# Entry
Amino acid sequence: MAFVNVKKKEVQAKIVYYGPGRGGKTTNLEYIHAKFSSRIKTEMVAIKTHGDRTLFFDFLPFDLGKIRGYDVKIQLYTVPGQIKYNATRRLVLRGVDGVVFVADSMKVRREKNILSLRNLQENLATYKKNIFNIPLVLQYNKMDLSEQGIPILPVATLEKQLNSKLKAPSFEASALIGTNVAKTMKKIISMTIASLQKDLK
Amino acid sequence: MEYTLSEEHLDNIERILQKDFMELGVHCVVLIDMAGNIISSLDNGEMAQDIYSLAALAAGNFGAVSAMAKIVGEEEFSLLFHKGEKENIHFSKIMDDFLLISIFGRETSLGFLRLKVAEANEKIKKIFKS
# Structure
């Protein structure tokens, strides 16, 4: 739930990158951190295991600048993707304003994407939020792997499996190279801000 | 969904933080919500912390501790205290959705701070309910 500080003329909103484990959520944030270093004055916070997997969350504050006189601060979070960390995933979703679902386009991860999306729906429901109403962007990550001969699901299949009912904006991406990482972020920010905008008068 | 507090409410909260904490010698005091948003923060001008990251971690930490409480059969642990060499952090839950974080040094007594936190808790509750 975004907080609008009328005194400091500041809005803080929370965007969470969700998706199956090893899907590239942290890589998205790392790319954003490197690419937009002028807007991000702090280090990225990452709580991870020794094996470099996200244990709790990654956190990156992003200064958007002014909208209608309000300083907009976007807080980007990732969740741990591994199935066993559902309790922490749910904690990170508390007060979420917008979600990027990072799907893994590799053929072998087909099932994991579907399970993770369903898990997102369930966890949002615990906060009385509906996946069909919340600002949501889908990202089909790891598209670059097809060049290395790794079997990738066609976009039409991903759309059918994940987005046929949601009809959310979606992007083919490579978080590692940076393809469409900024586009995904800009889209979710604009959707989130639009949903908050009625208060920014 | 978003929420906002009136300027008057924010002024009153700031006044409490100033009087009950900064005047006690606390180095930094921050009121956040459980989503990790900062509602109000004051410091003594000597702290250079990144309070946005601190707020995100504090909200996460508190959420994790609440989950631990449930595992051991407690409804919640309403306060947390971390002791350091020079700086200490005290966290206290305010109603269901807010968290008061105080960072203080050796010169401030923990007992006295806890007393002040309890008082401020009541005052801030009144503001939120008004």
About this structure: Chain B has a mean pLDDT of 91.
